[in-house]
Amino acid sequence: MSYSALIVGATGIVGQNLAARLVADGWVVHGLARRPRQAGRGAIPIAADLLDAEGLRTALAGIRPSHIYFCSWMRMATEAENCRVNGAMVRNVFAALPAPGLIRHAALTTGLKHYLGPFEAYAQGGGVQTPFREDMPRLPIANFYYDQEDALFEAASRHGFSWSVHRPSTIIGHAVGNAMNMGSTLAVYASLCRETGRPFVFPGSPNQWHGLTDVTDARQLARHLHWAGTTAAAQNQDFNIVNGDVFRWKWLWPDLATWFGIEAAPYPEAALSLDEMLAEDSRLWTTMAARHGLAEPDIHRVASAWHTDADLGRPVECVTDMSKSRRAGFTDYQYTPDSFFDLFARLRSERLIP
């Protein structure tokens, strides 16, 4: 059976890795983004703004995909605006496609904010319980993930295709210019510490340092998305997706330091702000880029410290249950240290870090 995919947000950390996975499996892949030059090797680029309904309709006029993958979001000033804008982006895509009745499956990637709440109320209120399970009810607060889900469910009901929702933890993977990229951010931080002799101190909360947590390799997520789109048991289901192991930062952090040839500093037993620590380093990174012949002199293209602060600053440990996927047949596993080390090696090989 032949498949064709439209990846919405093809230049992001999810979209790029998904495109590579589908192209390798012989799919015809269209990569939609505002600037789709980095949509992934083998993907057919489509340039459009998801909030420009007419422009989107023109861009998608000749596209009749069997599968749609939503891997995009836009950060706004308030959660109310997040809901309005990100829900509209999903609805606009379905409205713009010339033959939505030909869609077989559509998948939406969200994340643990489904359980933790949006950034402006992130993990607050003391009601967070782990492990996160798909049968937990929605939180009684505004959350743009819920608006995106509702837009997906409505379109699926109207046009008769199956759907899946995928909830990764913090995603570790390769994508330059991505707004949510802890792996690259920590690589930049470690490189700066090695260059300047600063202490490589864990900037997160005591709960994260001492407690259990998990992450999602972008390659693992791509495999999960591919599986759900072609497996009957995964139709019309929401799934958590993580690597399949758990770890504590207090034992992983020294291993990250060793990879960069530096020592891990003692943990101060209090959260710091990596965003503040890197705030004045734009010029230093530009200088380092020139000295080491790096491909990207703009630190903001390779690091997103604000988002890493949110993930590492969680006031609770984060453990995500994968039983639902396992019982439905998805058994892939990814060793978490290798998620980081593979990424670091690729960043170095592409001259993105020294």
Automatic annotation (TrEMBL):
CDD domains documented for this protein: 5beta-POR_like_SDR_a
PRISE-like Rossmann-fold domain span: 66-354
Lineage of source species: Bacteria, Pseudomonadati, Pseudomonadota, Alphaproteobacteria, Acetobacterales
Transmembrane segments: none
Domain of life: Bacteria
SUPFAM superfamilies: NAD(P)-binding Rossmann-fold domains
Name of the protein in its database record: SDR family oxidoreductase
Coiled-coil stretches: none
Organism: Gluconacetobacter dulcium
